[in-house]
User: Which sequence fits this backbone?
């Protein structure tokens, strides 16, 4: 029976071979430098032995003619050295071509493994692509986009949604870690990801129930219409991230850096923004029933048309007059979103939402100045 992991084993062998080649090249260059220094030093000593006595004779007006055969020998040595350098340059070009070809082969094989039906093979491919992106500049941008695309496509499969309604699979969480986590030195934590032109992470429409983004670097990431119920963004760097229309019920953004992030039209019922830095963040038209903004930095944040019944703003900081809707009957659309999220979240969250719905039933909308909400 054919080994189902033969491609992965072959791929790992290729990586080992490539590393062996690179080590050989390093030894080759080291030996080459020593040879070059010996040749150059020999020529310098040779001409010094010939010319220094002659120069001294010239100074003493006792000129000694340099023998033609000695000069000819020096010329031949110089020509030999030039030919030696030319040969080494050609060999270096051939080696560079071979290395480039092997890098391309590694990339193509990893992409092939990423489409495998075996979870272990796909996970191996994810690690392989990550390592390739760290080592080689050529494929960095492309690999970051491919891994984000893998998260989007894999998590939207019907079978995946059915079996991972509470937390992501090990494969998907591993991919998230290798992309965003500081501890794992994810791609988006690297210096090259901070350069203009490097593609922003695109996780729009991804199914990220209970995903762990703790300490993640998600600057400018696109979570548009993603399902992030119960996801953990504690201490995450989410500056200018886009959560437009995202489902963030019961998501945790404690101590997260959300400056300039957009939560417009997002479903944030019961989300926890305690001590989050939300300066300039946009919550316009968002559903924030029961959300907690305790001690959050909300200077310049916008809550236009947001519904915040039952939300808490204790010790939150605002720098301008801002009216926030704190009471009023909750719309059928918001209630449906709560019911749809209920299977994925705990009973405590659901009971809290039901209490808020009941307390606001039949009430007219009432807006309250944000600064009056921040006292203990």
Assistant:
């Amino acid at each position: 029976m054919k080994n189902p992991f033969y491609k992965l084993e072959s791929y790992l062998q290729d990586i080992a071979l490539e590393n062996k080649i690179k080590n050989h090249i390093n030894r080759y260059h080291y030996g080459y430098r020593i040879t070059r220094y010996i040749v150059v030093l020999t020529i310098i000593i040779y001409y010094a032995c010939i010319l220094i006595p002659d120069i001294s004779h010239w100074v003493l007006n006792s000129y000694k003619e340099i023998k033609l055969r000695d000069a000819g020998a020096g010329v031949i040595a110089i020509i030999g050295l030039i030919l030696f350098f030319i040969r080494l340059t050609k060999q270096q070009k051939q080696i560079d071509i071979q290395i480039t070809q092997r890098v391309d082969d590694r990339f193509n094989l990893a992409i092939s493994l990423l489409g495998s039906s075996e979870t272990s093979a796909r996970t191996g491919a994810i690690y392989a692509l990550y390592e390739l992106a760290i080592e080689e500049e050529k494929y960095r941008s492309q690999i970051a986009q491919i891994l984000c695309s893998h998260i989007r496509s894999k998590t939207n499969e019907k079978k995946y949604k059915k079996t991972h309604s509470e937390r992501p699979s090990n494969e998907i969480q591993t991919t998230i870690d290798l992309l965003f986590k500081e501890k794992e030195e994810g791609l988006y934590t690297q210096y090259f990801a901070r350069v203009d032109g490097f593609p922003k992470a695109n996780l729009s429409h991804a199914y990220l129930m209970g995903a762990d983004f703790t300490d993640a670097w998600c600057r400018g990431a696109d979570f548009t219409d993603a399902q992030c119920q119960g996801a953990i963004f504690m201490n995450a760097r989410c500056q200018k991230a886009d959560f437009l229309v995202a489902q963030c019920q019961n998501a945790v953004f404690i101590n997260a850096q959300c400056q300039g992030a957009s939560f417009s039209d997002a479903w944030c019922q019961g989300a926890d923004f305690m001590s989050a830095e939300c300066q300039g963040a946009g919550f316009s038209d968002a559903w924030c029933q029961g959300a907690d903004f305790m001690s959050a930095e909300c200077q310049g944040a916008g809550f236009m048309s947001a519904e915040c019944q039952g939300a808490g703003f204790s010790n939150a900081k605002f720098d301008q007059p801002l009216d926030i809707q704190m009471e009023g009957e909750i719309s059928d659309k918001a209630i449906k979103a709560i019911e749809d999220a209920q299977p994925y979240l705990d009973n405590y969250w659901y009971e809290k939402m039901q209490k808020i719905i009941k307390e606001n039933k039949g009430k007219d909308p009432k807006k309250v100045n944000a600064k009056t909400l921040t006292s203990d």
Summary: Residues 38 and 346 are 75 Å apart (CA to CA). The helical segments are 6-59, 68-114, 119-135, 140-155, 158-163, 170-180, 332-341, 347-360. The chain has two domains: 6-104, 200-376. Residues 6-59 form the longest helix (54 residues).
